[in-house]
Amino acid sequence: MRLDGCVAETDPLAGPPGEGGGRGARGDGGAYESPFAGGEQASGNGHSGDNGRPPGGGHPPGNGQPPGDGHSGGDDRTRSLPPPPPGPPSTGDRVRRAAGATGRAARSAASGTSRAARFSANRLHRAAEAQGAGKTGLSRLIELNAASAFADALVTVALAGTLFFSVSTTEARGNVALYLLLTMAPFAVVAPVLGPFLDRFSHGRRWAIGFTAASRGFLAWVAADAVIGGGVWLYPAALGVLVGQKAYAVARAAAVPRLLPEGWTLVAANSRLQLAATFGTLFGAPVGIGLAQIGDDWPLRAAFFAYVGTTVLAILLPKKVDLSIGEEPASLTEGDDDGSATVPGKPRKFRVGPAVVRALRANATLRWLSGFMTMFMAFVLREAPVAGLDDLVLLGIVAAAAWLGSTLGSSVGALVQARSPDRTVMALVGFAAACTLVTALFWNLLTVILVGLAAGFAQQLGRLSLDAIVQRDVPEKNRSNAFARSETLLQLGWVVGGGVGIVLPLIPWLGMTVATIVMVGGLVFALRVRPPARTPSPSTPPPQRPEE
Predict the structure, then answer these.
(1) How far apart are the first and last CA of the chain?
(2) DSSP per-residue codes, 330-359
(3) Tens of pLDDT along 469-498?
(4) For 67-71, which contacts have Cβ atoms below 8 Å and span 24 or more sequence positions?
(5) pLDDT tens digits along 409-445
(6) What are the phi and psi torsion angles at 157 (to 5°)?
(7) Which DSSP helix (H) or strand (E) runs through 120?
(8) 280 contact partners, CB below 8 Å, separation of at least 6
(9) What is the model's pTM?
């Protein structure tokens, strides 16, 4: 021990080198400050008591040796204080964290959606090209129909909460009724002559289908701006999209017979088209619901781009869609021909016959029920909900039931070939009348689901039955024109039913009673046409189904 109170440079108590001791051993000139020196050393040499080090023999806090373990001088004032706890994050930090989490979630969702879309598109493409449909171009029409249904589903989801549920029932009914009249009236006038007019021009059908898609895309964008800005163009744009859907159905109807592969029937082709539309709706509805959580206009913006893709697919359809060489017009009346055959320069019109007329009347009745259910249920469920459920939930349940019924109708449509389509379509009208009557007597959740399921099933299977009758009784050269004209009449039946559903008082039993009366009246009106007994003709064998 030295007289100045310092530990010798070789004292083992100085600690090993590298841990705060043993400076003399490292050859630092004896500048080591012993913990035994106390405050005298500090006052004598001008250095602070800790020389920049924490007390405790040169061991900083936090290295496993706490202060005051026997190496400290015992002065609490020289101990290190723990670091202060971190403060709350600032607004900027929270925004950055939220943005980062949202970006990661968006990337994950986009990646999953992209993978699901690619997988679904590949499955649809393979199914569309099966059984020779890819050789004639029918597969392109099937994919086009799926894309159109996908875009329509986006629009439906976007407008469900704005067109019907953002305003009072009275205001919504008045607006829908007014714009339904203003938009459907021109369609009712133009539609009967639209098909023959387009047949006079090259690329008429393809461009007509493309125009219906492009116009819907433009109107979807207009509706999106109206949703955000609260403009007056929401109802006109929404009803304009509805007109575009009806015009698309008419233009597509004439294209189907021109793309039929050998051995196919109209029933099989339209069943495949309907299943593709079901796929598009099933995929588009959840996408639209997800986009609606971001903003009310997002599904409409997405629908715009979907319609753009549909327009491109329409233009890329095979050229045979436009060819009407050898085809002749048809008249949806009874008989064999009419006086137009004797007029010079006027093409001969083939009268489709009583069997087609009867099936067409029955289908117009079923299509009336579809339009009526769409409009009436959209409003009556707001005024008279059932089972204590929210009106939007109830509307979704009815729509899902109608969609399921339509899918079932498409699935069993192939059985029409093995049964009598004439009896099938009559039975469907009677079945729809019975369901509406039960719903009028017992208004509850079960009957509401039943009538929605029945409306979708009867409409789809009835249409496939009409397709079978048209292909059986109408010559191929008249089939395309008859098909387009029948679709026009059915779309007008939907419009009339929707109009009745809007103007009726929102009383459940009254609306269902009116629907029952119309169904019974339509059945009687159709049964008044009595087709002659059929005799098999060896020159026109019955159509065969494509092999599965």
Answers:
(1) 106
(2) EESSSSSB-GGGGSTTS---EE--HHHHHH
(3) 888 888 877 777 777 778 878 888 888 898
(4) 71/35
(5) 888 876 666 568 888 999 999 999 999 999 999 999 9
(6) -65, -40
(7) helix 91-128
(8) 145, 146, 147, 148, 149, 150, 152, 153
(9) 0.67
